[in-house]
Amino acid sequence: MLKSIHLVETSEVLKERQRDKVRITLSKYGGSQTPIHFHNGFVDLIKSSHFPPLNADSGPHPLRCPMVLAHEFLDALPIHAFQLQPPIVHVSSPSWRELLVTNTSTLTTPKFELIPARTETLASRSLPMSDLRYSKRQFEPGTRIEISAASIQLIHSLTSFLVKGTRTFPTPSASVPSTPKGSGSALIIDYGPIDGIPSQSLRGISEHKFTDPFTDPGKQDLTCDVDFGLIKDTALSIPGATVSGPTPQGDWLLGMGLAFRADRMIKTAGLTEEKKDSVRRDLARLAGKGEGEMGAVYNVVTITSREAATL
Question: Where are the domains of the chain?
Answer without folding.
Answer: 1-40, 43-77+148-247+299-309, 80-145
